[in-house]
Design goal:
Length: 355
């Protein structure tokens, strides 16, 4: 298949609460490269299919137009890694809105991982000993259809610098916490300035030893890894760790592959977590290829998650037995360090549950 053409920039509207607002005009005049790239993201199903040279007849299950509650959002970098003319492309299937999302399924709920019960202060969640999570923003650079926080009440979380005071105070007072996870949304959707403001406050807490960035942007919007971000990490007292999220080997290509390799060579510990998804990566071959693609550039496979049972995602679920069989097959073909741990998050448990 021939490579996909570049699309013209469209007016950018925030992907969610806390996003940096960038219009086409601003992108041309002063926004950073990654903000200009985000401004050109695809936001309509019809446009996505047209870019891939597909028609509605090729994907009759697709939802056309916009889903106001969870709209389509796909950066051009990620789009260019899809195969034109293939309605079953594994990257397309991660982002394509389909009718199955609107079907209720038993056991699939709004808060499948118990986030609300773990909220100890505005923007602060704590589920496991020694670690706490900050909900930095509700925005992402891509809207994955299996997202476990697709209906999280981000509007309740901090937006301005002073809104974080309660969370920072709680972290300061609890000396048992040694690691803080920056999540969301995606923490790298914050500008470098806003990210540094938050990171510097966490980094100043003497008992915090590690700060973890949970982010999909190096995968879907690699231009976000700026020299300013690297500089921020190099100035941190605590150890920065990056956990990225790739589900398929086809994602580890072109600018994504280059960016991940640069992060590793620069000295950043980079781990990958993925989700087991029906029709996308639910074979041993898929998972072996993903692990090889990661290991070849120095990224360590970390977790393979059983799907979180969030409303609207039942069509992605893979039986646990298949996941176990995949891991067994991976162990016969890969060294131990290249095999992720199959886990499930169960609300109330003291850690991720190995499967």
């Amino acid at each position: 298949m021939s490579p996909l053409p570049h699309a013209k920039l469209a007016n950018y509207q925030p992907a969610g609460e806390g996003a940096e607002r960038v219009t086409t005009e601003e992108a041309d005049s002063g926004a950073t490269s990654w903000q200009r790239d985000l401004a050109g993201a695809i936001r309509r199903t019809d446009d996505l299919l047209a870019q891939l040279r597909l028609t509605p007849a090729d994907v009759p299950e697709a939802v056309s137009g916009s889903d106001i509650n969870f709209p389509l959002l796909v950066p051009q970098s990620y789009l260019r890694r899809m195969t034109a003319g293939d309605p079953r492309d594994p990257l397309l299937r991660q982002v394509l809105p389909v009718n199955d999302e609107h079907h209720d399924a038993a056991g699939f709920v709004l808060d499948a991982v118990g986030d609300q019960d773990a909220r100890t202060a505005p923007g602060l969640l704590q589920k496991y000993h020694g670690r706490a999570l900050l909900m930095t923003t509700g925005s992402c650079a891509i809207h994955c259809r299996y997202c476990f926080r697709r209906e999280y009440p981000y509007q309740q979380e901090p937006k301005r610098r002073n809104d974080w005071n309660d969370a920072i105070d709680a972290l300061t007072q609890d000396t048992s916490i040694s690691e803080v996870i920056l999540s969301g949304g995606d923490p790298l959707m914050l500008s470098d300035t806003r990210l540094e403001q938050l990171v510097s406050r966490v980094d100043a807490i003497s008992h915090i030893r590690r700060i973890r960035f949970h982010t999909r942007l190096p995968i879907v919007l690699p231009s976000r890894i700026t020299s300013e971000f690297r500089s921020l990490c190099s100035r941190m007292r605590s150890q920065p760790i990056m956990v990225v999220h790739a589900n398929h080997a086809n994602e580890i290509a072109s600018d994504c592959q280059e960016t991940l390799r640069e992060l590793v060579c620069w000295g950043m510990p980079v781990l990958n977590q993925s989700v087991l998804l029906k029709g996308i990566n639910d074979t041993a071959a898929d998972q072996i290829n993903l692990s090889r693609s990661l290991i070849d550039i120095g990224v360590m496979p970390y977790y393979l998650h059983q799907l979180d049972r969030v409303r609207g995602t039942a069509h992605f679920e893979v039986p646990v037995e298949i996941g176990r069989h995949i891991i067994q097959q991976m162990r016969t073909e890969l060294p131990g360090y290249a095999v992720p741990q199959l886990v499930q998050e169960i609300p109330g448990e003291l850690s991720k549950t190995p499967l």
